[in-house]
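Exercise (ungraded).
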Amino acid sequence: MILFIEQLLNGLQLGITLFLMSAGLTLVFGIMQVINLAHGSFYMIGAYVGATVTVFTGSFVLGVMAALAAAGITGMAVEILVLRQLYDRDHLDQVLATFGLIFFFNEMTRIIWGKQPLFMDMPVWLKGSIELLPGLVYPIYRLAVIVVGMSVALLLWYLFSRTRLGMQIRAGASNRDMIGALGVNIKLLYTLVFGLGTLLAGLAGVMAGPIFAVESGMGESILILTFVVIVIGGIGSVRGAVVGALMVGLVDTLGRAFLPSLFRTFLSSSYADSVGASLASMSIYILMAAVLIWKPRGLFPSYN
Amino acid sequence: MKRLMTILIATVFVFSLQSAAAEPVKIGMITTLSTKAAYLGEDIRDGFQLAVDQEGGKLGGVEVELMVEDDGRKPEKAKQIAERYMKKDGVKIMTGIVFSNVAIAVVPKVVRDGVVYLSANAGPSMLAGKGCNENYFSVSYQNDNIDEVVGQFVNDSEHQSVYLIAPNYPAGKDHLAGFKRYFKKEISAEVYTKLGQSDYAAEIAAIRAAKPDAVFFFLPGGMGVSFIKQYAQAGLSEEIPLYGPAFSFDERLLKAVGPVALGVKNGSQWTHDLDNEANKQFVAAYEEKYGRTPTLYASQGYDTARLIGSALKAVSGKVDDLDAFKKALKDANFDSVRGSFSFGANQHPIQDLYIREVIKTDDGQYTNRTIKKVFENHVDAYASECKM
């Protein structure tokens, strides 16, 4: 039971990280109709800049702030320099261009930081573990990630449903020609939305820094999961991103944790291990397929 | 007529040029210089290059031309490069492949076409046993060696049960098999994770619940960095010690892992502190030239170059007589940075294997210290299957 709760927390934490990634991506998808494959690169930029500044200044908080700034500013620069040329083009062109950006940013980090992974430690005040329940010891840092992610979700909810900017963003998602006609500066709005998305990716990256390897190309592995989240949640919907991310995080973690032992109850152990491991890595794609059969446009499709 | 003369003269000129200066011996290096694993190829190349530079562009007194191409970790790309080396450049000596799956795709083909291939890293079982070939030499190891030494060490220790974890792909299973060949006590569980996974929270929680005496993991590259960090953050490193092959503990990865790897014991065929003249000279020269501590990959690149040098010297640079060149290679008449080194029947190394420990130096760097020689003149498990 304790193990199950611990694995639930692990799934929740993975889901939160995925949410930070997919919130930005789904917004860009939904509002700007741009397929941005390079979203993982901003995750990587967040982690690299965060790691460097943290090591250099010794302050994790400064590292996080630098990471957010770097990811946000790079994102807006990319929007202005690259994506603006692509809005009227075909989706294929956007995919090609942003795919090219992945190579660009991966090589760039290698040129700047060298070929080996980077070191990033967590701050002393987030080190160690606490006993949540008798026998349930959980790392403080992972709890902090959960708290930060939930706060961001709340902030986004407030931004979208209670502020003028949020209203414009939602309007942009429904009908972008109309919102332009109503006198909203759609160019600026796009740049801001894109910057917000990449900033969230940078936040996910810098928070992943102390637990994962900070290395060139680290964004790609999480990017695939992020796409699964968006497809499940429905393109363009932040609510869908929350639900999709939590579902993917939980299914992936619980699958990895319990499928092999489930199979061991009725199969020989070496066979169960390999079947369990294979099925666990497929579980989220099975989930995605199931959701798509039931709701072909995702759980919360946001526009027509 | 005039045109014919011009062509004739040009031909004569080209041929005379060739005979005037002896052509340098071409060595084709196919290695991984991009992707996450880029630093592995970089170290092999730098180690190799150091040996060439120390002789002023020669190996064994023979002028060499080192050609380096990046395979991007892709078997099909490596195949194309090998093809080009053979057809366009007429390369007879190749080396450098980092990954076993790439080696399996390239090596059988090139050795069939009369190229001598010397592995500076990958040592898949497929090429050590039934698939051995007289044109193929592994200068590094047979993959399983690095796990066997840890298996033997843990078997000799007080630990009664071990939890195994590796990525779900052929090399992952091979490496665990290497460990199990010498570890005869209880296997608490054998877990295979996704290749490229970065979050190990679920696996670590399962380890905590299973309460093994020790954990053996094979998770190369960034996977290992993530795993070791998260393992320590979960507070498990004090309770359940980690063991692994050297791949997660080279000096460049240790920079990224930092203090949480301190004290972890791992297996290797080489460490920079091995006490022999060739090694001391190599480590000092490498640090001076590149400003970083050499990794085991760098040592393998260096040894490969010096082995080629010894053979080139023996045949006075005449690689056209391939049999004589191969015989000279097999003699392994060079001072390896590993100390004792010779080739077994399957042309894989017979060498000593060590357990080492991650330490912090006085100037704040993380590195390894040799603590025990576990195997002396160790022969790999597949040598007997090789019929040459």
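Further reading is listed at the end of the chapter. For now, observe: The two ends of chain A are 44 Å apart (CA to CA). Chain A touches chain B through 49 residues (CB under 8 Å).
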